[in-house]
Design the sequence.
């Protein structure tokens, strides 16, 4: 951790929930990005935890925008900075609802235009800001306020959707692995064009686990293989260290599910579906990494 700067750009006065992964993720994102950064934040938990006007926990400029507009706003902002000869980092920091659902049209347009920016989706797999309703990112079998019996549809593969736009850089990360996250943000910001970072954000109140277990839950997601850490740089796929070991000998998925109240009562068919999806994704990424597909 010695290479991570000591400067703090998200301060201690957030109004986040105890154990909040969003503030943990954002802390390391901003350490990697530095002070010459503007955050574009659509409606999401982060637009709340930054504080109540006129006070703020953010030590960089933040532009709060409508749910659907983040990538479009960032496109204009990036172009304006470029015309002014500035190298300011433009980072969209959005939840899964504002990325895989409501914001996907603007995201697609920005990537098609090869906008020079970094789009970060912190994924707590539901609409956390408004009471944990299901999103397109909610996994099958998970209970939310709008799927009290467990979601019956598979999680939308936003990484495959973004990859189809051929961005310069695409990677996954997890709140439980700050060094990996830090290095990926640094790499993304060093490259031109459109970059996308998809970060798993285990949410204590939404996933229904004790607030001190956020990091442990994130590590278990990676160790079980349900969340794979990888990078796709100019189309070349690399599976990162923690996931390399997990793919050889994954932890039981049931251990990951059992720690979360949202999976209470999940049936075997849903568990089998999650295992099948995880195995298929692992195989596809391994084949890509080996240059087979």
Sequence:
């Amino acid at each position: 951790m010695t290479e991570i700067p000591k400067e703090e750009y998200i301060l201690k006065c957030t109004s986040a929930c105890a154990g909040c992964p969003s503030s943990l993720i954002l802390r390391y994102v901003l350490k990697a990005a530095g002070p010459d950064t503007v955050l574009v934040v659509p409606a999401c938990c982060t637009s709340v935890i930054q504080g109540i006007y006129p006070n703020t926990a953010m030590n960089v400029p933040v532009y709060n925008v409508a749910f659907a507009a983040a990538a479009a706003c960032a496109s204009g902002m990036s172009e304006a900075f470029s015309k002014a000869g500035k190298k300011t980092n433009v980072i969209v920091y959005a939840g899964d609802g504002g990325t895989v659902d409501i914001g996907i049209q603007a995201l697609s347009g920005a990537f098609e235009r090869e906008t020079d920016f970094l789009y970060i989706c912190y994924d707590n797999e539901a609409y956390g800001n408004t009471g944990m309703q299901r999103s397109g990112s909610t996994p099958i079998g998970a209970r939310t306020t709008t799927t009290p019996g467990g979601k019956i549809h598979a999680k939308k593969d936003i990484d495959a959707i973004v990859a189809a736009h051929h961005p310069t850089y695409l990677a996954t990360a997890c709140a439980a692995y700050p060094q990996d996250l830090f290095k990926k943000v640094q790499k993304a910001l060093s490259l031109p064009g459109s970059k996308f970072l998809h970060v798993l954000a285990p949410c204590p109140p939404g996933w229904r686990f004790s607030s001190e277990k956020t990091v442990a839950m994130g590590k278990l997601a990676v160790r079980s293989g349900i969340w794979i850490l990888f990078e796709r740089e100019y189309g070349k796929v690399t599976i990162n260290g923690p996931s390399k070991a997990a793919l050889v000998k994954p932890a039981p998925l049931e251990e990951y599910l059992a720690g979360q109240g949202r999976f209470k009562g999940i049936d075997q068919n849903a568990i089998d579906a999650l295992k099948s999806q995880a195995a298929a994704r692992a195989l596809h990424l391994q084949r890509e990494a080996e240059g087979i597909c």
Remarks:
- The first strand starts at residue 37 and ends at 42.
- The longest helix spans residues 268-289.
